[in-house]
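Data availability (excerpt). All sequences and predicted token strings are deposited with the supplementary files. A representative entry, BGGP Beta-1-3-galactosyl-O-glycosyl-glycoprotein, is shown inline so that the format can be inspected without opening the archive.
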Amino acid sequence: MRKYVNHHSARVIGDRNWVIPFITSFIIFITLYFSAISGLFTSPHDGENLSFDIIPFAKSDDTGGYYVESDLKTSLDTNGSSKIGAPRFAYLISGTRGDSHRMMRTLSAVYHPRNQYILHLDLEAPPRERLELASLVRADLTFREVENVRVMSQSNLVTYKGPTMIACTLQAISILLKESSEWDWFINLSASDYPLMTQDDLLHAFSNLSRNINFIEHMQITGWKLNQRAKPIIIDPGLYLSKKSDLALTTQRRSLPTSFKLFTGSAWVMLTRSFLEYCIWGWDNLPRTILMYYTNFVSSPEGYFHTVICNNEEYRHTAISHDLHYIAWDRPPKQHPISLSMKDFDKMVKSNAPFARKFAKDDPVLDKIDKELLGRTSRFAPGGWCIGSPEGGADPCSVRGNDSVFKPGPVSERFQELLRTLLSEDFQRKQCT
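Structure token line:
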């Protein structure tokens, strides 16, 4: 998702008044930071709570005190080894006004009992639509039994050119870290995203992969982008107003940072739990320093995680520059990607990517993906966990079996070809360069 500043539509603040917005932006950072971690201390539900395993924090018997830094650093394993057992994913699916049914369709297409899911409708969606989304989740028998789908009760105003999307993402990650200790990778999707393979295909492909690999398309910011992205001082009204409006730009310019390098890339990521623990807990000050910097940065979602991971010696070698999406752009690229349709189907398949975006609501190509790639004829894309009988049009996923048994199809083989390319030595030489 590439964003560009429209200098004509932005409000310009005069030279004499730049101090007040700048001080305001610092206060906004404090609000942004505590908003991001608030998920660690508040329940994500207004009503009935779902029960999940909580991460234990036990004191060491060998020392007189407990130092969180040493405990968190032990979770890092940069030698490339992988955990035992099948992996688990944690999804954030986000949407805005009118997206509730699209979000449910995407959720059903990527659902698997092993995974965790958070749905977020932003503040532009009316309360009635948010209640409808929560009711749809609560009414689903599988979701009630497995208890792995949540609807965020706190709605955030999201302006995609500002830092509010990062604030919302960090809050969702915080909730996931608090509520469940059993996931390995975090994946963010929007209501206009859709999978190109089943979760069995994806989980099977990641079963033999190191749990330390992060998929995040990135490149160092150079040239004209430094002037247009890094030097302007912006304020996102979405952090303190209840309605969206354009970013506020001061006429002042700031110097480039000297203590870290700036990176940019796709806003759609697949990040490891250990890296996100580092972003949230931050046993050094780098994640907070960069978060403060990106509070006043144009298109923060396309730079925050990228800059953090590429400026940390322990994680920079884990960054694979790919967002695992098929996305089509105009030439030259415009602010938004092309909406995919039937004519793009073959290109999507040949990309071997597990996800694609963006799709128009109920576009016929989604039905083609369901039929030919996902084998989805009922609520969920079928997998090894679905052991019910399909006779008479019954839903085979209405009866659940062992969720660690996968039945990958030919799509999984194509995806593993992509993984072999991404993990090749030639490709990995491009990490954080």
